[in-house]
Design a protein that fits this description.
Length: 341
C-alpha cells in the first residue's frame, strides 16, 4: 500500500472510529442527496471534525461509494485525503488567523467551474480564527454559493464564530470522543499510561493534553502533588513548605490553578475509592503511589477522610473568590494536618 493510499484509509477509519454516529448520519444524507450547502462542525480538538469533513467530501466524489460511504481506495478518495484534488480546497490559519486574502483566494477559485465534474467542496479548518474581514468576505459566498458547492467550517468554539455565519450554516455539534477512543489517542501521543485516568478526569480535549505535556509540566505537577500528599500523611510540616517550593513555581495562569486544585481532589478521591469502592489500581489517578494510597485508605477513619475531602473541595470556591493561590494551598495544608492529628 502506498503512502497516499494509507492516508486515505486513515481518514476513513479515523472518522468511523471517533464519530461513528455522525458518519452513519452523513452516509444517509449523502445517499438521499440531502446534503445542505454549508455546515459548521463544532467540537473539541481531537473530536474528529476534519476527518468527518474529509470523509463526507470523499463520499461525494468517490468512484465506488457504498451506502453513502467512500471506498477510500479510488483515485478521487486518495487525492482528497492527500489534499491534491483541484475541486476540494482546505483553508487553515496562516499564523494565528485566517486572513481575508485566503478567503479571497478561495472565492476566486470557486467562482470558476469545477475542474473535474460539477462538484466542489471547501473546508475551513479553524473557522473561529478568521479575522472579521475574512468572515464578512466569506458570508456572502456562503449565502449565495456559485454552482454545486458544499462547505464545511470547523471550529473548537462556535461562540467565537461570527453569528451571521453561524445562522447561515447547519450546526453539527461533535460529542466528546468515547473514553476508549480517547485512551487510544493518548497512547498514540506517547503519553504514559500511568497518567491516563487522571487526564480523563480532568479533560477530554487532546489539544489541552498536548499543552499540558509540553516541557513535562503535567508530570511535574502530578509528582509535586504526590509528594505533598505523602508528606501530609507522615504528619510532616514539610508539606507546608512544599506548597511554596514545589507546587506554586509550576503555576503560571488561572487554568493551572484550577488543574492543581482538581489534582488535590483526585488524590484524596483515590483514597476514598480504595477504601469504599475497591477500585483497581489501573483506575487510580495517582497509580505511582498506589501502595501508599492503599496504606492510608486502610488506616484513616471514614469521618476524617470525608472531612478532608470536604476541605479540599472548598478550594474551588476560594479560587473563584480570587483569594491568593499560595495562601489557599497553605491554609488547606495546615487544616489537613490538623485533621490528621
Amino acid at each position: 500500500m502506498s503512502t497516499e493510499q494509507s492516508v486515505a484509509k486513515t481518514v476513513v477509519s479515523d472518522a468511523e472510529f471517533k464519530q461513528p454516529q455522525l458518519v452513519e448520519h452523513f452516509a444517509r444524507v449523502v445517499t438521499n442527496h440531502d446534503l445542505t450547502h454549508a455546515y459548521l462542525f463544532n467540537g473539541e480538538s481531537g473530536s474528529g471534525k476534519l476527518a468527518v469533513a474529509l470523509q463526507v467530501t470523499m463520499a461525494l466524489f468517490c468512484e465506488h461509494p457504498v451506502n453513502g460511504r467512500p471506498c477510500g481506495q479510488c483515485n478521487e478518495c486518495i487525492r482528497i485525503a492527500n489534499r491534491q484534488h483541484p475541486d476540494v480546497l482546505i483553508v487553515q490559519p496562516d499564523g494565528a488567523s485566517i486572513k481575508i486574502d485566503q478567503v479571497r483566494m478561495l472565492k476566486a477559485e470557486f467562482s470558476k467551474s469545477a475542474v473535474e465534474g460539477n462538484q466542489k467542496a471547501f473546508i475551513i479548518n479553524g473557522a473561529d480564527k478568521m479575522t472579521t474581514e475574512a468572515a464578512n468576505s466569506l458570508l456572502k459566498f456562503i449565502e449565495e454559493p456559485v454552482g454545486n458547492v458544499v462547505s464545511f467550517l470547523l471550529t473548537n468554539n462556535k461562540s467565537l464564530v461570527l453569528p451571521t455565519i453561524v445562522s447561515r450554516t447547519q450546526l453539527v455539534d461533535f460529542p466528546a470522543i468515547a473514553p476508549a477512543v480517547f485512551s487510544k489517542e493518548l497512547a498514540q501521543m506517547g503519553i504514559d499510561r500511568n497518567y491516563f485516568h487522571l487526564i480523563t478526569m480532568l479533560t477530554n480535549n487532546l489539544q489541552t493534553v498536548h499543552e499540558w505535556f509540553e516541557n513535562d509540566w503535567f508530570a511535574k505537577l502530578q509528582t509535586a502533588i504526590s509528594q505533598w500528599f505523602l508528606q501530609l500523611n507522615k504528619h510532616s510540616p514539610v508539606a507546608f513548605t512544599m506548597v511554596q517550593t514545589d507546587i506554586v513555581p509550576l503555576i503560571n495562569n488561572q487554568a493551572a490553578k484550577a488543574i492543581t486544585i482538581d489534582m488535590l481532589i483526585e488524590v484524596w478521591r483515590d483514597v476514598l475509592d480504595v477504601k469504599f469502592n475497591a477500585v483497581a489500581d489501573a483506575e487510580l489517578s495517582f497509580p505511582q503511589i498506589k501502595d501508599q494510597i492503599h496504606q492510608i485508605a486502610f488506616k484513616i477513619p471514614k469521618m476524617q477522610l470525608l472531612e478532608i475531602i470536604e476541605l479540599v473541595l472548598k478550594n474551588n470556591g476560594a479560587l473563584a473568590a480570587n483569594l491568593n493561590f499560595q495562601t489557599i494551598l497553605e491554609t488547606t495544608t495546615l487544616r489537613v494536618l490538623e485533621k490528621l492529628e
